[in-house]
Design a protein that fits this description.
By secondary structure, the chain is an alpha/beta fold. The chain folds into two domains: about 240 residues, Aspartate Aminotransferase, domain 2 (3-Layer(aba) Sandwich); about 110 residues, Aspartate Aminotransferase, domain 1 (Alpha-Beta Complex), CATH 3.90.1150. The chain contains 13 helices and 13 strands. The strands form four sheets. A seven-stranded mixed β-sheet has the order 1-9-8-5-4-2-3, with helices on both faces. The chain has a two-stranded antiparallel sheet with strand order 6-7. β6 and β7 form a beta hairpin. α3 packs across α9. It is globular and about 60 Å long. The chain starts with 8 loop residues before the first helix and ends with a helix. The model has no long low-confidence stretch (mean pLDDT about 100). Belongs to the DegT/DnrJ/EryC1 family.
Length: about 350
């Protein structure tokens, strides 16, 4: 019996081979490889998809977060509130601009930011909040807004392409929405890529400058903090092929997670409605190690997203951020990621379900 992988990019991209090759050849034949027509077209289409006025393509998802912080003027001495269970991506961006993360505890079911914990952490030095829609699950944006007041909200949408609530899609709730197009994402390129979406013209203008050395005009760097972080033409062309298919892929991911949820104990996974695009099928298991061993014995790959809290990362320990976040600590000891990708067959899903029993 064939092993069941956590993800399978070859299976995902194989049906698109002809369209992807045609898109690649179009770019090669154009002779224009950076910030050309493909990027412009993708930025237009993705902004429309997200329901924002602008999309600015950048080099990757972490750059998207860093440049969003810089566009807001966040820098040394500032604090930015975020969660500690999301792989250190937001924290690394915060540290890159010279600010410091303030860690907030999580909701025990959805594993996203807990507004009540956030309210207790907001002080005068906190200048922004990064809300991570972890595993594809939209966080409680209404609750976050209620405690944030005028603080700008940056959405980390790297795992939530297409998630929506009350007709509003991920990226359109906050001042800025940051996306990754890493190949394993729900909308993935064939290399690195990222974007920031916004409906604020001033922030869009700042981001266009920041992604290219801080230029106001060519070779005139007028904005501090600029860098070289551009979505390239090849990846934009690939993403244009995939964007029209995203909603269908998300629907299949939801169906897989719903089947797992039905087979698991109550509270192991949240419901998968439109506000969850099931980027990762993450469940809570008190006997996680035994479950992983059992699935491995059945040829089923699992993983842990993510095993180390940001405040306990060796690279951040010198900042003295170690603190008590009880829900975060409990979740890290119990979470396990099950196979979930659009091409996973019903038979494979049932094999996973049987192994979980």
């Amino acid at each position: 019996m064939s092993p069941i992988p956590l993800n399978d990019l070859k299976r995902h991209n194989a049906p698109l081979a002809t369209a992807l090759k045609q898109a690649s050849e179009r770019v090669i034949d154009s002779g224009w490889y950076i910030l050309g027509g493909e990027v412009t077209a993708f930025e237009r289409d993705f902004a429309a998809y997200c329901g924002t006025a602008s999309c600015i393509g950048v080099g990757n998802g972490t750059d998207a977060l860093e440049l969003a912080l810089r566009a807001l003027g966040i820098g040394p001495g500032d604090r930015v509130a975020t969660v500690a269970n999301a792989g250190m991506y937001a924290s690394s961006a915060i540290c890159a601009v010279g600010a410091r993360p303030v860690f907030v505890d999580i909701d025990p079911l959805r594993l996203t930011i807990d507004p009540a914990s956030l309210a207790a952490k907001i002080t005068g030095r906190v200048k922004a909040v990064i809300v991570t829609h972890l595993y594809g699950r939209l966080a409680d944006l209404a609750g976050v807004r209620a405690v944030c007041g005028d603080l700008p909200i940056i959405e980390d949408c790297a795992q939530a392409h297409g998630a929506e609530r009350d007709g509003v899609r991920a990226g359109a709730f906050g001042a800025l929405g940051c996306f990754s197009f890493f190949p394993t994402k729900n909308l993935g390129a064939l290399g690195d890529g990222g974007a920031v979406v916004t409906s604020d013209p001033a922030l869009a203008e700042a981001l266009v400058s920041l992604r290219q050395y801080g230029w106001a005009t060519k070779y005139q760097a007028s904005r501090p903090g600029g860098r070289n972080s551009r979505l390239d033409e090849m990846q934009a062309a690939i993403l244009r092929v995939k964007l029209p298919l995203l909603d269908g892929w998300n629907a299949r991911r939801r169906a897989i997670c719903a089947r797992y949820r039905d087979a698991l104990p109550d509270g192991a996974m949240p419901e998968t409605g439109m506000d969850d695009v099931a980027h990762l099928a993450v469940a809570r298991m008190k006997d996680r190690d035994a479950v992983q061993a059992r699935l491995a014995g059945a040829g089923i790959q699992t993983a842990i997203h993510y095993p180390i809290a940001d405040y306990d990362q060796p690279a951040l320990r010198h900042l003295g951020l170690l603190q008590s976040l009880p829900e975060t600590a409990r979740a890290l000891a119990e979470i396990v990621t099950l196979p979930c990708f659009p091409e996973l067959t019903d038979a494979e899903v049932e094999r996973v379900v049987e192994a979980l029993a």
